[in-house]
Design a protein that fits this description.
Distance between the termini: 62 Å
Radius of gyration: 22 Å
Strand order of the largest sheet: 2-1-3-4
Number of helices: 22
Largest sheet: 4 strands, parallel
Shape: globular
Length: 447
């Protein structure tokens, strides 16, 4: 009998398909019972106390309740735990000993998602969250009217930022991204160059998936990725069929995510058939395509095909180095602080940015595995901004510890937020930019 015993937590975590079409999934009594079951386990364990604000809130509320029991929590307190969750998946991926296949069957992020799905179905998703989740619409308008949009969102413009705070709850202090004048895909004809025929990787093809942020806001990582790939012999095309719908996932709008997933997968399917790998510039998009979409639409063949063909840009460069080899990289005597973003960690592929930067001779990358605190759109709200900065402070201290020459993050929003946290703390040295690791590769290549 002893030989047959196996502790569930010793196996790799597995996730269940989301039964979002099942009416029972939206049953509020069943949801309340499941939340109290899970919260009771979390309260007894507490391994996730330092990951995000959900767990400190939960533990404090239970500890301060009359009987110190989960049953003492009211509906408002339960919702406060949900509202503090950014769906980063770190509790599931790196901390929790009770995830499936353990018999406790605990998936905290997807439980929070279920709660939000019930709220969304009832029309209770806040207006600001709904508006901000329309990233393609916002990006197109922001690019067309970039001068006005950037003037209005500038932190120095207290009039318009004050209006945004009163109407949408966006903190006046939160740094918002600028809009580019021209979307990245529109710049592709001038940006994409012929692949280097002398490179070891010549003959390979990549469809570079630009996130909304790459498409409409900061295009520097996309430009760097195009140059590095072409220099390594890769035929590149830039694609942005539409948003990966992560902001809508955060809202619990799962039908909208499923619809977007089907359309994006159908867009890429013929390219995959033509031999293109799909490479996401932003880690959040890679996470959605590789992991979240197949759990939402497990029977969609195009989504399964896309998940198998998708790589994060750092992951792809490491894979290329191991399979074909890279065009020789010039030495770069520099230390690099590398922020290991949550949505990179959640892809369960290891610190690929670190591996990629180690391919640069004489480069000295140092990893920081801590949350930036930004959490997508979560950290820009007035109710969350101070907490987002608080969470970022130990991450900033870790990054600054070795006084690196450069700092990078695979999450563009995290990079901006970490830089702002340094400025708010009055740091003596603040980097001009905390960009994407692929930018360091482009720099090493002199591109």
């Amino acid at each position: 009998m002893a030989a047959d015993y196996k502790e569930g937590s010793l196996d790799a975590p597995t996730r269940h398909v989301l039964p979002w079409r099942d009416e029972a999934w939206y049953d509020e009594a069943a949801l309340d019972a499941e939340m109290r079951r899970v919260f009771d386990i979390c309260h007894g364990c507490r391994r996730c106390f330092n990951l995000c604000d959900s767990f400190p809130r939960l533990f404090d509320m239970i500890d301060e309740s009359p009987n110190e029991e989960v049953e003492d929590l009211n509906a408002g307190q339960m919702k406060a735990v949900v509202d503090a969750c950014t769906l980063c998946d770190m509790c599931f991926m790196v901390k929790c000993p009770y995830v499936p296949p353990h018999e406790f069957d605990l998936d905290f992020p997807h439980l929070m998602l279920r709660y939000r799905a019930v709220e969304h179905r009832k029309g209770q998703t806040p207006k600001a969250d709904r508006l901000l989740a329309e990233t393609d619409r916002n990006g197109k308008l922001g690019s067309v009217f970039s001068d006005i949009a950037n003037w209005a969102t500038d932190g120095a413009n207290q009039t318009t930022r004050g209006i945004m705070q009163s109407m949408l709850g966006i903190d006046t202090r939160a740094r918002l991204p600028d809009f580019a004048d021209i979307p990245l895909t529109n710049r592709a004809p001038a940006l994409v160059t012929a692949p280097n025929p002398d490179a070891p990787g010549f003959g390979r093809r990549v469809a570079l998936y630009a996130s909304c942020y790459d498409q409409f806001n900061d295009q520097t990582p996309g430009e760097a990725a195009v140059k590095v790939l072409a220099h390594n012999g890769i035929e590149v095309r830039i694609e942005h069929p539409e948003c990966c719908a992560m902001p809508k996932l955060e809202n619990g709008d799962i039908p909208a995510v499923a619809s977007a997933a089907a359309r994006v997968a159908a867009h890429f399917a013929p390219l995959i058939d033509q031999g293109f790998d799909v490479v996401a510039i932003t880690a959040s998009c890679a996470l959605m395509m590789k992991f979240e979409w197949p759990l939402i639409e497990p029977d969609n063949a195009d989504i399964a095909k896309l998940a198998a063909a998708t790589h994060d840009i750092s992951e792809y460069m490491v894979k290329l180095s191991k399979t074909a080899g890279l065009t020789p990289v010039e030495a770069m005597d520099a230390s690099i602080g590398v922020h290991f973003a949550c949505h990179s960690r959640a892809q369960n592929m290891g610190p690929k940015a670190m591996e990629m930067l180690k391919l640069i001779p004489e480069a000295r990358p140092v990893l920081t595995e801590r949350c930036s605190g930004h959490g997508g759109k979560w950290g820009i709200y007035k109710d969350n901004f101070d907490t987002a900065v608080k969470i970022a402070r130990p991450t900033v201290r870790a990054l600054q510890k070795t006084a690196p020459d450069y700092m990078v993050s695979e999450c563009p929003l995290a990079g901006s937020h970490l830089k702002q946290t340094m400025e708010l703390a009055g740091a003596e040295t603040v980097p001009e930019r905390i960009g994407h690791p692929i930018e360091m590769m482009a720099k090493a290549y002199g591109l």
